[in-house]
Amino acid sequence: TQLLEQSPQFLSIQEGENLTVYCNSSSVFSSLQWYRQEPGEGPVLLVTVVTGGEVKKLKRLTFQFGDARKDSSLHITAAQPGDTGLYLCPQTGDSNYQLIWGAGTKLIIKP
Amino acid sequence: GAVVSQHPSRVICKSGTSVKIECRSLDFQATTMFWYRQFPKQSLMLMATSNEGSKATYEQGVEKDKFLINHASLTLSTLTVTSAHPEDSSFYICSARVTGHEQYFGPGTRLTVT
Questions:
Q1: For residue range B24-73, what is the model confidence (pLDDT) as tens digits?
Q2: Which of A37, A47, A91, A94 should one mutate to test binding to chain B, selecting the residue with the greatest count of B CBs within 10 A?
Q3: How many CA atoms are closer than 13 Å to the CA of A107, on its beta-carbon side?
């Protein structure tokens, strides 16, 4: 059984602060996607990382994929209220390109 | 690109009736779509994988006769909740596979069974 853990589970900070959330798995990711889901909506794909050690930047968001492809981090600089949401990094399943979802990190940015 | 729509966004039905939810890929073709349900404050739970032109693959514990999935074209998959009961009330979300493991999600359908 593969384990997927995201930390912290919940984070509430003030606008303008920096933060990092983490995604760790007991198994190697075929590829790793980060999604953000807002209440009452479907998840939105933010980024896909494939190569160990890969770093991708999306404006104020920096995604890093671990060398062993078992972990990833998402760093947000100068967080804004629009960054509020549930951040998810699903594990890749064994078949049919399925994704297995954990509880995610619930992020609240207070104005 | 990679826009997925869902219809309806909200539906209220009476216990015992059936409800159909449509999931469309608007600007791409999707051979594989997925159906999820999500309860409040919980993560997504995969219900089934829908492959165009073939039978859906259901996850363990999901009744295939209750949740009918049809993927008749490369841009449309439907989920029909048959003989709905209050415990079927949930947030249903579809997604479409674009490439590799990337999935693009619809906005979800809030089903309330009274």
A1: 999 999 889 999 999 988 889 999 999 888 889 999 999 999 999 999 88
A2: A37
A3: 29
Q: What is the DSSP string of B22-49?
A: EEEESSS--SEEEEEEE-TT---EEEEE
Q: Any idea which residue has 């980024």 for tokens?
A: A47
A33-37, A71-75, A90-94: lowest mean pLDDT where?
A: A90-94
- Chains A and B form CB pairs within 8 A to the count of 60
Quick one: A75 exposed, middle or buried, by C-beta within 10 A (0-12, 13-18, 19+)?
Answer: middle
Place of tokens 């949401």: A85
Whether A101 sits inside 8 A of B34 (CB atoms) is no
Q: The tokens of A3 are what?
A: 């384990």
